[in-house]
# Entry
Amino acid sequence: MILHIDESWILEAAERAGQRDPAADDYGVPIAAVARHRGELLDTPVYDGPY
# Structure
């Protein structure tokens, strides 16, 4: 299975998890989470699946 994480998926998951929490005001966190899943070293994916 290949799971592509993007900003909208991260924001939707965060919204479901914290329905009564205030809205996020720091969007650097979801952007960093997306970049983490796309990380490559020497053209090799750093992660072989969702973590």
Observations:
- The two ends are 13 Å apart (CA to CA).
- The longest helix spans residues 7-17.
- The chain has a mean pLDDT of 75.
- Residues 5 and 34 are 6 Å apart (CA to CA).
